[in-house]
Amino acid sequence: MAPDHTPTPPLVFTPRPSAPPPPSTVGVMGWLRANLFSSVPNTILTFLGAYILYVFLEAIISWALINAVWEAPNRRACLDAVGRSGACWPGVIAWLPNLIYGLYPKDQVWRIDLGALILVLWALPLFLPRVKSKIAIGLTAVLVYPFLVSYLFLGGEKGWIWMVLVAGSLATFFWVWLTAISEMRTGLPFLALLVRTLAGPDPIPERARLVRQLAWAALFVTALVIVSRWQLVEVPTRLWGGLFLTMVISGIGITFSLPAGVMLALGRRSSMPLIRGFCVAFIELFRSVPLITILFMFNTMLPLFLPVGVEVDRLLRAIVAVCLFAAAYMAEIVRGGLQAIPKGQYEAAAAMGLGYWQSTTLIILPQALKIMIPAIVGNFIGLFKDTTLVSIIGLFDMLSMARAVGEDTRWLGLFIEPFFFITMIYFVFCFAMSQYSMNLERRLGGGQRR
Amino acid sequence: MTTPAIELVGVSKWYGSFQALKEINLSISEGERVVVCGPSGSGKSTMIRCVNQLERHQRGDIRIHGRAFGGGARDDEAIRRETGMVFQSFNLFPHMTVLENCTFALTWVKQMPEEEAKRIALSHLERVRIPEQALKYPLQLSGGQQQRVAIARALCMQPRIMLFDEPTSALDPEMIKEVLDVMVELANTGMTMVVVTHEMGFARQVADRVVFMDQGEVVEQAPPEDFFANPRYDRTRMFLSQIL
Fold it and tell me: Which of A274, A299, A342, A434 is most buried (CB neighbours < 10 A)?
């Protein structure tokens, strides 16, 4: 028989399906074995660590909860009951309003609560999924809310400028919620909805603009009527204190430092020598000096440079100092982020005809800020804790209030408990910030992780 | 004689004291396809990046359709918009979807309504044969797909000239062809193209002219058949013997 000369057909390659991983590497048992009991030294360390943790927690819990005294007229009574083996909480409870509000008059404290509530309400639409105007709402929360709330906290006589600002701020607050509600119901922003109902689905632009202007005027007049009826007693800033003061200083510092830091970082990378020189000088000056020194300088030296009779509020001086300091640090963080963006991104943007500001705000910053989230939030947390330093220049932040507890004649010497308590408060706030930052990273990273 | 699409007259460029371009003279007419090749460090990338002023030259003139660069930032940006560029490392914007990468400049630079921008973007994504990836993020795509998106993105701005800076050098061998195919199709539509590449097959197939550069100078230029068959300079012969 003649040999077959047709070429042999190619072999067909079919990839095998993946097999399941070996059972000892998955599940709870697999995890325990891999992480806690992988070898003899590791097992010993695991038990040692567990023992230390137990001793530590047991001591804290029995001091803070089990042996603790919850009701007593003064510290003597506490000591008579349990000695030093348990915490004496009544002192902290009695001082709780001061730890939170400082020396703010008791009958005016509702104003602080209301201000905090308005902030929560203002920011709430940002977390509702169906609200679309999030950028506008976020911007107003940062730029407009402060006017309303600073009047609420400060009170006192209001001139007509103040009145207009506060009323405008309140009108914006109405707008935020009207927009949020109408977007959740109909998918349209409030003003667009109003234009459609009043002027028809396809109105002439002039008419649409008129409707918008009238709507704003109506909101403003309503707000003005409300504001003009308020009579708030003036509460000078030297009475502000406690957690409230900490929040005011760090809140302003945080909201100011990010945009200022971005501008400084961009300035430092600018090709214009004057701008670059100023930014470098500013950043290096403020980064090379401890915050405490800056606070002192602003507190004691600023008045020397100002004309006689011009008095800058002590709190304001502290806030300005904190803001400038935080901005300098933020600038270096942002610069790090900007440097991490490959040069190709700038080139691609330029090649498509984008100018400097467009490519910076739309291409570079969104990417840079996203990779800088951990560092930025870390800086915010640091700033929040650094505000304790203002106690040095005579402001009664939470730390000073905690110290004051032990100087009260009824609770003389009670230091550990109030410090333990404010430690917990600081921890709750800072931990919440760090968790939020991780959440933010996960959400923004979706689909584009390298 | 019509105005050339691209004209370089005595263009020189220095990095510090190192001269990267030495009085380059080059004229490319409308609809012409030019392949630029040469060893690394020969100045070919610098040259193509000077054409849209990603790098600024220090002496000489560069004219695009008769308009010279250097008349103020606004004019320069307008002239630059006549060109589109494709990079070696794609340079897609990782924080935007493929579609947003394409519509982005249309809505922000040309201020086009979003619907129209989307329509144009999709038509170009279709042209490079990946409309189905429009809603993915760039880093979810393969290198070849990313480079095709980059081509579509550049085409969206309706440039009259396309510049390619080593478009296939960062690709796995299996993906080079899909990108080259798109470029060949583009060449067949009559687009003016300047391509820096080592893909000599592509040069043979579509180029009207091959330009060989070394040490910041144009050594020789010729239609591909002459260029590959009888290079005149020894330097060219050596280069060709090493890459072919």
Answer: A299
Mind listing the pLDDT tens digit for each residue in A303-321? 787 777 777 788 988 999 9
**Secondary structure (DSSP) of chain B:** -PPPSEEEEEEEEEETTEEEEEEEEEEE-TT-EEEEE-STTSSHHHHHHHHTTSS--SEEEEEETTEES-S-HHHHHHHHTTEEEE-TT----TTS-HHHHHHHHHHHTS---HHHHHHHHHHHHHHTT-GGGTTS-GGGS-HHHHHHHHHHHHHHT--SEEEEESTTTTS-HHHHHHHHHHHHHHHHTT-EEEEE---HHHHHHH-SEEEEEETTEEEEEE-HHHHHH--SSHHHHHHHHHH-
3-state secondary structure of A341: coil
The amino acid at residue A263 is: M
pLDDT of residue A156: 82
Between A60 and A134, residue with greater pLDDT: A60
Q: Which of residues 38-97 of B touch A (CB under 8 A)?
A: 52, 54, 73, 77, 80-81, 83-85, 87, 89-95
A1 pLDDT above the threshold of 60: no
| Domain regions of chain A by residue span | 109-234
Q: Which residue has tokens 């970082």?
A: A265
pLDDT of residue A10: 84
Distance CA B193, CA B84 (A): 10
The secondary element (H helix, E strand) that includes residue A217 is helix A205-229
User: Going edge to edge, which strands form the sheet with B67-68?
Assistant: B18-28, B6-15, B59-64, B67-68
String of DSSP letters for B21-82 = EEEEEEEE-TT-EEEEE-STTSSHHHHHHHHTTSS--SEEEEEETTEES-S-HHHHHHHHTT
CA geometry: angle at B180 spanning B176 and B183, to 5°? 150
pTM of the model: 0.83
Q: Please report the ipTM that was assigned to this predicted complex.
A: 0.90
Å from A401 to nearest chain B CA?
46
CB of B159 within 8 Å of a chain A CB? The answer is no
Neighbours of A57 (CB within 10 A): 10
| Residue A203 three-state SS | coil
For A342, the closest chain B residue by CA position comes to B91
Put simply, whether B243 touches A (Cβ < 8 Å) is no
How is residue B137 written in tokens? 């993020």
Alpha-carbon gap: A267 to the closest alpha carbon of chain B (Å)? 19
